[in-house]
Amino acid sequence: MKKRALISVSDKNGIEAFAKGLIAQGYEIISTGGTYELLKPHGAIQISEITGFPEALDGRVKTLHPAIHGGILAVRDNPSHMATLESLDINTIDIVAVNLYPFKTTIQKSDVTYAEAVENIDIGGPAMIRSAAKNHAHVAVVVDPADYDGLLNELSIGEVSLDTKKSLMAKAFRHTAAYDALIASYFTKELHPENLTLTYEKKQTLRYGENPHQQAALYSDFIPTSSILTAKQLHGKELSYINIGDADAALSLVREFDTPAVVAIKHYCPCGVGIGENIAQAYDRAYEADPLSIFGGVVAFNREVDEYCARKMNEIFLEIIIAPSFSDDALKILMKKKNLRLLQVAPSSTVTGQQVVSIAGGLLVQEKDHYTFENANLTFPTIKKPTEAELKTARFAWTVVKYIKSNGILIAKENMTLGIGPGQTNRVGAAKIALAGAGERAKGAVLASDAMFPMPDTVEEAAKAGISTIIQTGGSLRDQDSIDACDRHGIAMIFTGVRHFKH
Q1: What is the Cα–Cα distance from 472 to 104, expressed in whole angstroms?
Q2: Phi, psi of 465 (to 5 degrees)
């Protein structure tokens, strides 16, 4: 039988060179649609000449035919299979080079219609890929242009090895699985369907994970959003696993604010947050919040980084600076540090969606916590009510505390954080850490808690430090104990009715 390769691709990168290489090694090329038009000058045969049927239904039906799938699926060392092919005058197909309709790029268009998305669901392509992959002992299936040269090199010295065919087979099934998962995800409207089909595309291999002995990689969603993954790196060395996590946390928090804001992050946790009338004022507040912890951290801006901020940041060691833009003068200053990463990310509102956490044997999936201060049903149970300034600070504190690991307590005053107590096993312990960080600055400040007070001990610690207002969830069976404690000490308390656990 003739040596045959079937080529039908949407991604035509390198396909002419690949086809010419196969022809040079004695392969006959059969092809379809636009790929055929491209390869016709090189002697390709249109698939209708093989099947005896023209392409039908506007191209929807062209490869779903026994002359194609029989040639792919026949087991070469099975006498019955080969006898059947001979009786039906079907030639074997030894190489299948197929990639699929551009569903991903279609749905990424802002004006894509439902009908257009449906029309870009490939049927014949996945069928051919799966047929060839199933019969990989006898057929080489290639879905990635990056594999063309390697395949040609092996053919030039003999047959394609079984190990190579197995590797190509696995990649082929990953290709069709990702394709089907993307289609399923796009059309699924249920929040938590009976089967969760997630697919991500490898963006880069990372040097290591959280520790040097852990291998790691970065994967991106197929539908890009303005995020760290779409950031333009203007300067500095490659991002690490921890860098990416910190940068994502910083960007998520800074996007909560409409006013000029700066966020400093260390180990996924805010260490200093400031807002102001301008970005310079916001930076000064974020820095002054905790000048020690910001060292070696990640800083995110929601406004352009100007010369003033650049000069200030140039005085300390930072890992990453993130902003929607940098002034020319700022870039000149910051680029003097060769390892400092500068990331430019298009401005965007807070990204919503699902949060996925890996556990042994499965996944935990939930909506991201996008609840805001405006959504909260505020109540004021204490005798003293917050002033307008205290309420404004409480809003700021409540916005930030959402990003602190539970149990979490935050102290804030005058549009800046003063002390943060994250991730403690009891709430009063978190309060003591936050109050110690604030020191004397805690007098007249606001204390925010990510969840309710099960007893009044946190209020007592706040009173010792001179806290004027507390904002917390409320809803404990012992709420009245905390209310009474606030009344004794002249503290205003705000209940939000909303919990912000973060583990």
Answers
A1: 44
A2: -85, -10
Task: State the pTM of this model.
Answer: 0.85
Residues in the chain: 503
Active site residue 502: no
User: Could you tell me the pLDDT band of residue 433, with boundaries at 50, 70 and 90?
Assistant: very high
Rounded to the nearest angstrom, the gap between the alpha carbon of residue 354 and the centroid of all alpha carbons in its chain is 10
Q: Which amino acid, residue 308?
A: Y
267 flagged as catalytic: yes
Non-local CB neighbours of 391 within 8 Å, separated by 6+ positions: 469, 494
Tabulate helix, strand, coil % of the chain (nearest 5). 40, 20, 40
Question: Facing residues of 262 across strands?
Answer: 274, 301
Kind and range of the H or E run holding 322? strand 318-323
Residue-wise pLDDT for 23-60, tens only, equals 998 999 999 888 889 999 998 888 888 877 777 676 67
> How many Cβ atoms are within 10 Å of 268's Cβ, its own excluded?
18
- Strands (E) in 62-198, as ranges, are 95-98, 140-142
Pick from 466, 469, 478, 465: nearest CA to 449: 469
Give yes or no for residue 464 having a pLDDT over 70.
yes
Number of neighbours of residue 13 by Cβ within 10 angstroms: 13
Which is higher by pLDDT, 122 or 383? 383
Give kind and range of the element (H or E) at residue 289. Answer: helix 279-289
CA distances from 250 to 150, 196, 317, 371 (A): 42, 28, 17, 18
The bridge status of strand 446-449 relative to strand 297-301 is unpaired
Q: What is the pLDDT of residues 337-355, one digit of tens each?
A: 999 999 999 877 666 678 8
**How far apart (Å, rounded) are the C-alpha atoms in residues 276 and 271?**
17
pLDDT at res. 218:
93
- Strands 409-413 and 446-449, by their bridges, are antiparallel
Q: Catalytic pick from 267, 384, 392, 489?
A: 267
Choice among 134, 312, 337, 392 that is catalytic? 134
Q: Is 31 helix (H, G, I), strand (E, B) or coil?
A: strand
**Is residue 79 exposed (0-12), middle (13-18) or buried (19+ Cβ within 10 Å)?**
exposed
Q: What is the pLDDT of residue 109?
A: 82
Cβ-contact 134, 75 below 8 angstroms? no
DSSP letters along 410-472, please? EEEETTEEEEEE-S-SSHHHHHHHHHHHHGGGGTT-EEEESS--SSTHHHHHHHHHT--EEEE
